[in-house]
């Protein structure tokens, strides 16, 4: 019987073509990237030598790289909190039995499907310093959203949240739709108000959606490139420089490929560490519920 | 009832505020330069289509639409074929190999592409694929396989085994059982895979800039990027280009949007 069962399981050859492409495009280059991070390769020719941890020492001494690390972490934190907060509120809103809910869902999700580089150009206008145009004209303000170093990073965060709040919304919505209506009815019969029902029924059962949302927005925030590249290219000064824009410049402007991959490795380690912590903490929370 | 009405009003107000950038995009693209500077926030009066005609040729949108379409469609076919095939093994094989390969694929969702960016650039150059459609298709297929495999595997795990087993007991091979019986059952998740990968591939900017920049085979975001660089201060013209560049993928999304929420629901269960 067991033999028969395994004879009905597909062979690993089904996975072989996908594995081959994945290995060529992702696995091999990533492993090679880890190795390059310990070299002084300039990108030209074969000349490269292993330099140990010199690239990592250089990152610590590099004000621009360290500043970009700080910017990346701040930006990620802001995006994760606001995007998921807004996404959750939107999901709760469009989950209710509103007449316009199908339309509202499409409206809030639509920016997700537009190219980030195009969204950045659109927001460059929205963030126009001209007091009669864009957001300033609408709100009667005179802020230089992208030109003022103390504001620019938060402006980028606002643009990213605008684009991806709908993405968080859809994932929360899928979570909300998986909660049986009987649980809410039972809580209502027990006399629970809307806030109590949210606290004791909805919120705990949203744990899997929250896990996925926090992970995706954190990873997305840490890797952010297109929006910054198109909107400010890291400026003014280094106010919006992120790890991704710095490693791009080090490689393709300054030709320091070894140093650039070392920065990429730091980025990868941050992403891996955050993912691991989130998975283990949030999964344990899901199980505990 | 009154509370639902109030919520509806609040949500619609939020949607209107949320749409302000889109309002600016559309109205500015329909204004001539005089209206742009004098009444930037008003409705276009009268609206003009001049920006669209000028942007279409200045941004070379025709050729880049063709390039983007070819690259996106072929990559999607490869992703759906390779991804569903691999996921069928990963979801059904309860062996150490199956589990190990699944984890290996998932790793690709977390790894930043920047880590392999430079070695891959070198590899693609050595293969003579810089500036070609084939290079981009290979890249997108590889980079999006983890996500595709993840979606398919979750969905197939929730499917009863019996359909395929019945076909095989009747004498069908694994291959026939998969293509004739299992694959048609995957339609909802294939819809999700299609729309989410299409959005990613169509909109990706950095890699085509690197691999296709200056080749004459640029995709839409790259063409729009260089076009915006040239006409940076002429918002009417720039926005007409953005509207046309974003329209194809927005239309595809509107047709397939019901698969987005469905796909996430099955992902959360899986």
Automatic annotation (TrEMBL), chain A:
Q: Which InterPro entries match?
A: ABC_transporter_permease, MetI-like, MetI-like_sf
Membrane spanning residue stretches? 12-38, 73-94, 106-126, 151-179, 200-219, 257-282
Report the coiled-coil segments. none
Membrane topology (UniProt)? Multi-pass membrane protein
Domain annotation ABC transmembrane type-1: ranges: 69-278
Keywords assigned = Cell membrane, Membrane, Transmembrane, Transmembrane helix, Transport
Gene3D superfamilies given in the database record? MetI-like (1.10.3720.10)
Give the location in the cell.
Cell membrane
Tell me which family the UniProt entry assigns to this protein.
Answer: Belongs to the binding-protein-dependent transport system permease family.
User: Could you tell me what this protein is called?
Assistant: Raffinose/stachyose/melibiose transport system permease protein
Source taxonomy: Bacteria, Bacillati, Actinomycetota, Actinomycetes, Streptosporangiales
TrEMBL record, chain B:
What's the superkingdom here?
Bacteria
Kindly give the membrane topology term recorded for this protein. Answer: Multi-pass membrane protein
Extract the PROSITE patterns matched here.
ABC_TM1
Which Pfam families does the entry link to?
Answer: BPD_transp_1
Key words, A-Z: Cell membrane, Membrane, Transmembrane, Transmembrane helix, Transport
Cellular localisation: Cell membrane
Q: Which residues form the ABC transmembrane type-1 domain?
A: 65-256
TM ranges are 5-26, 70-90, 97-117, 137-160, 181-202, 235-256
Q: InterPro entries of this UniProt entry?
A: MetI-like, MetI-like_sf
The family line of this record is: Belongs to the binding-protein-dependent transport system permease family.
Protein name per Swiss-Prot or TrEMBL: Raffinose/stachyose/melibiose transport system permease protein
Species per Swiss-Prot/TrEMBL record: Nonomuraea africana
């Amino acid at each position: 019987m067991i033999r028969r069962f395994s004879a009905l399981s597909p062979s690993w050859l089904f996975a072989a073509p996908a594995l081959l492409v994945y290995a060529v495009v992702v696995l091999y280059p990533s492993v090679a990237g880890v190795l390059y991070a310990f070299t002084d390769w300039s990108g030209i020719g074969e000349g490269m030598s292993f330099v140990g941890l010199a690239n990592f020492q250089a990152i610590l001494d590099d004000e621009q790289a360290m500043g970009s690390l700080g910017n990346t972490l701040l930006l990620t934190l802001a995006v994760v909190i606001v995007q998921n907060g807004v996404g959750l509120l939107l999901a709760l809103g469009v989950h209710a039995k509103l007449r316009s809910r199908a339309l509202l869902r499409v409206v809030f999700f639509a920016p997700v499907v537009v190219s980030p580089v195009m969204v950045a150009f659109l927001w460059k206008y929205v963030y126009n310093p001209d007091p009669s145009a864009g957001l300033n004209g609408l709100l009667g303000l005179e802020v230089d959203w992208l030109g003022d170093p103390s504001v620019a990073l938060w402006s980028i965060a606002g643009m990213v949240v605008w684009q991806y709040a709908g993405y968080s919304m859809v994932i929360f919505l899928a979570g909300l739709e998986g909660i049986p209506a009987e649980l809410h009815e039972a809580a209502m019969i027990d006399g629970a108000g809307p806030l109590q029902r949210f606290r004791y029924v909805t919120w705990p059962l949203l744990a899997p959606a929250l896990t996925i949302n926090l992970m995706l927005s954190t990873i997305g925030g840490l890797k952010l490139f297109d929006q910054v590249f198109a909107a400010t290219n890291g400026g003014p000064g280094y106010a919006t420089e992120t790890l991704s824009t710095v490693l791009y410049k080090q490689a393709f402007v300054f030709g320091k490929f070894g140093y650039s991959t070392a920065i990429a490795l730091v980025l990868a380690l941050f992403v891996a560490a955050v993912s691991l912590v989130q998975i283990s903490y949030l999964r344990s929370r899901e199980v505990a519920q | 009832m009154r509370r639902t009405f109030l919520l509806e009003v609040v949500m619609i107000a939020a949607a209107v505020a949320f749409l302000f950038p889109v309002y600016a995009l559309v109205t500015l693209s329909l204004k001539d330069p005089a209206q742009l500077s004098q009444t930037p926030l008003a409705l276009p009066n009268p609206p003009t289509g001049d920006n669209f005609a000028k942007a279409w040729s200045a941004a070379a949108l025709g050729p880049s639409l063709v390039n983007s379409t070819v690259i996106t469609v072929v990559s999607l076919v490869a992703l759906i074929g390779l991804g569903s095939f691999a996921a069928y093994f990963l979801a059904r094989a309860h062996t150490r190999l199956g589990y190990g390969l699944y984890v290996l694929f998932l790793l690709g969702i977390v790894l930043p592409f920047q880590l392999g960016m430079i070695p891959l650039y070198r590899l693609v150059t050595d293969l003579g694929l810089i500036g070609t459609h084939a290079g981009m298709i290979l890249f997108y297929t590889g980079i999006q396989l983890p996500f595709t495999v993840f979606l398919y595997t979750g969905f197939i795990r929730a499917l009863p085994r019996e359909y395929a087993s019945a076909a095989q007991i009747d004498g069908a091979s694994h291959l026939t059982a998969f293509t004739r019986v299992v694959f048609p059952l995957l339609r909802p998740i294939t819809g999700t895979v299609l729309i989410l990968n299409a959005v990613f591939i169509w909109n990706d900017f950095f890699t085509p800039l690197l691999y296709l920049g200056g080749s004459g085979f640029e995709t839409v975001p790259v063409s729009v990027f260089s076009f915006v660089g040239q006409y940076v201060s002429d918002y009417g013209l720039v926005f007409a280009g953005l509207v046309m560049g974003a329209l194809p993928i927005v239309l595809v999304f509107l047709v397939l949007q019901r698969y987005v929420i469905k796909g996430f629901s099955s992902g959360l269960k899986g």
